[in-house]
Predict the 3D structure of the following.
Amino acid sequence: MIWGLATNSLLFMIAIIFYAPIGFVQPALQGLMTRRVGPSEQGALQGINGSLMGLTGVIGPTLFTLIFAFFIGGQAPVNLPGAPFLLSAVLMISSLILAAKVTRSGDQTSIDEDLSNRIESRI
């Protein structure tokens, strides 16, 4: 969000300090994902992750270039060269919310199944 709304280069540079550690996120997420699938599903997980990264590597630059061009053009409702950064922030927040909902419901399901298995074994 800071990059999208930065009014000068100093603010842009300061935002880099806060965003730089994002490089540590991908390996951590990969580790968390591999724990949630069985050994026979590891290849599928890696394939899906690779496919998604390739797809976003094609779509992202094209989409963000078009958005940038639109918001610096003469027909733009506002002159906002940081619009691609704002869109990426919205997409990241949306994916975080979606991941939280999906994992929370998955955790609750496994807890419910574990609890019902324990009850059945005692009966």
Summary: The radius of gyration is 21 Å. Helices lie at 2-5, 9-19, 25-35, 42-72, 83-122. The mean pLDDT is 84.
